Amino acid sequence: MTVKIGVIGTGMIGRDHTRRIQQVLTGGEVVAFSDVNLEGAKALRDDLAPDAEIFESGQALIASDKVDAVLVTSWGATHEEYVLAAIAAGKPVFCEKPLATTAEGAKGIVEAEVEHGKRLVQVGFMRRYDKGYNQLKDTLNSELGAPLMVHAAHRNPTVPEQYVTPMAIHDTLIHEIDTFRWLLDDDYVATRVTFPRTCSASHAKLRDPQIVTLITKKGVVINTEIFVNCKYGYDIQCEVVGEEGVARLPEPMSVVMRKNAKLQNPILTDWKGRFVEAFDTELQNFVDTAATGTVEGPSAWDGYMAAVTSDACVAAQEDEGATIDINYPDRPALYN
Ligand code: NAD
Ligand code: ISE
Question: 328 and 204 in one domain?
Fold first, then answer.
């Protein structure tokens, strides 16, 4: 069976995911597009899926008989309404992060899915599919003993002008928030934020870099540096310190060159290349499971937990140095 997919949001990642479905993955075909920027949707259709239909609204796309499953790749604030509509239509939906921009919104999605009685929502936390993180998780479970600390960094060379301080949490740290819950099989109980001196490449509405501390139920302390004007490249670092040893996330493979009395290897410059295989694997997983009418992988519950944690981290940004408690509700059986 070929899963007929409708894409809502035809910007950067909508285009990249369409390319993978059309040219890299198996079992899926993009048959519909929708975007508030209709010209952008048409351009993507012409480039990658000439037979696809353009819908005037995401809601109409979701309701169409032609569409079996939905990809939500529009701006974050619009995800919630489309995911809710897909659940109401009983269609599997892959939603890019964030699931919703508020914890309240994400909670509504969890409630709607629980009411539906079957998982339909996969959230685009692609790092869970990254080989390096999976190797780190295996090493942690088999070699390191109890984890004690995590040292991490999420560095982007630059960000658009409209990127402001809370986005370091909702847009950027949200990947670490989900990854470390999964990596450590743990949940968070508290957070605090420290701002070092702001770098000169930043602006008045962005305090960059920042260091976010997350403390887990089991007592692991995670320090993540977010530095989105680091200039030199896109760099994701993670080191887990356990009772029996220390393990590091592998660096992306690259050629090591000796030249002009220097030993050097290139560093990637954006997320697309850094996680290309993880994106392929997560979306193949979505297509395969959508063919059976359900989904696997990061769930609406994980999206909700990430939203609750993000809200606490933003509160910690606003109250620099204070420790903010994180309280999670009970997990519905659907997500056990
Ligand atoms: P983008 O601005 O390039 O594209 C977003 C598109 O959504 C635009 O074409 C815009 O016109 C469209 N849009 C806005 N409102 C809409 C609405 N109401 N209905 C339909 N379309 C609408 O942004 P992007 O970089 O492609 O990011 C899109 C989403 O993907 C964001 O939520 C972002 O956080 C997420 N993202 C995830 C990763 C990742 O690593 N997993 C990487 C980049 C982006
Ligand atoms: C972007 O939206 C992503 O999701 C990238 O993975 C992340 O590294 C970047 O900081 C975000 O802006």
Answer: yes
Number of domains, the chain: 2
- 241 & 223 share domain: yes
Q: Which of 8, 70, 73, 99 to mutate to test the pocket of ligand 1 (most atoms within 8 A of CB)?
A: 73
> Per-residue DSSP letters for 71-112?
EE-S-GGGHHHHHHHHHHHT--EEEPSPS-SSHHHHHHHHHH
Kindly report, residue by residue over 9-30, the tens digit of the pLDDT.
999 999 999 999 999 999 999 9
Tell me the best of 133, 271, 282 to mutate to test the pocket of ligand 2, counting ligand atoms within 8 Å of each CB and taking the most: 271
Answer yes or no: pTM beyond 0.90: yes
Q: What domain range is 228 assigned to?
A: 130-268+306-335
173 and 79 share one domain: no
Give 105-132 pLDDT, tens digit per residue: 999 999 999 999 999 999 999 999 999 9
Q: Which helix (H) or strand (E) holds 285?
A: helix 276-290
